[in-house]
Amino acid sequence: MSINITLIGQIITFALLVWFVMEYVWPVLFTALEERKKKIADGLAAAEKGHEDMLLAEQKAKGLLKTAKDQSSDIVSLAQRQANEIVEESKNTAKKEGDRLILAAKAQIDQEVQHSKETLRKEVAALAVAAAEQILVAEIDKTKHQEIVNKISNRL
Amino acid sequence: MATEAHAAEGATGYIIHHLTPLSVGEGFWTLHLDTLFFSAVLGGLFVWFFKKAAENATTEVPGLVQNFVEMMVEFVDTQVKDSFHGHSKLIAPLALTIFCWVFLFNFMDLFPIDLLPAIGSVMGIPYLRVVPSTDLNATFALSISVFCLIIFYNLKIKGLWNFSKELLFHPFNHWLLIPFNLLLNFVEYLAKPISLALRLFGNLYAGELIFMLIALLPAYLQPVLSLPWAIFHILIITLQAFIFMVLTIVYLSMAHEEAH
After folding, report:
1. What is the ipTM, given to two decimal places?
2. Does residue A99 surpass a pLDDT of 50?
3. Chain B window 103-162: which residues touch A at a Cβ cutoff of 8 Å?
């Protein structure tokens, strides 16, 4: 249990060990550790960036979707308006056409009526003449009337 | 000591036998072969393991060995960065070496107490003390090296003039108190390596001694006592290695800082 030359031997061993570790072990391991740390940090940063990009894209997609929705609703309302207009227009046209047709029909009817009246008048007149003829035939007194005719004829 | 061990029989003989190092030489020129051998083997193991991991180190997903080694490096680096604010190429590898080496020293304590000496005696080795940190030479070798580094960095960072001024005028800045300051600083500086070495030595020596005492008990009692003690010792050996490392870092960072 005494201090002796072993001490010197131990110091030499210790110095050699420390030198070896300092020269060949620590720097290599430490560099590897630092590099991996950097790699992991880079990876994490990339992941973070990806996440941010995704959020950005999501936002952008949302915006696009919103504009598309707006646009489509605009288009729909426009189409509706246009359809309404068309319906309104065709209604008007139809009404006009109908009016025109009615007017034409009325005119034709009037014409027909006029024509019928004319025909009727003519027929009535003919009938009246025929009736008058009949009456005349029945009422004629040959002697009496011969006198009249003769009188007239004499004037000639 | 060796002759006493032969003379004493029974429990005392057993303990003395276990505490006697395998040595050659006389007096100061004695070499504790077991301490030198085991510490060199453990140091080689540590360096081989870490070197292999360093060679295969990739920045890809690490394997089991690399993961473990990186954990150690990271752990030591955190400790160094926590208390040392300068920049030094040496301190982190030094701390790693101290932690691992001391831990491996201490770990030898967890081998069954008679296993390696018994194998040794079969091979014709009369004494074998397997835990290097129960040898004052091993612990003082570490702490004296650290002490030399403390002095070296004090001189390097502060310069001879500032360092001397700190020794003479700190903590009491008055010329009349120079001798007192000098004495105080002398004790303070000397206490560092001594406390470092003796703390580690004391803990491991006591732990080893208790294992020996347990080994002297009847066989049916031994597991009941040695198992809890061994489990407790896992904590002790790690803690002692950790304390040695942290104090080294703290002392060296103090050497790097200017006087208040």
Report:
1. 0.85
2. yes
3. 132, 135-138, 140-142, 144-145
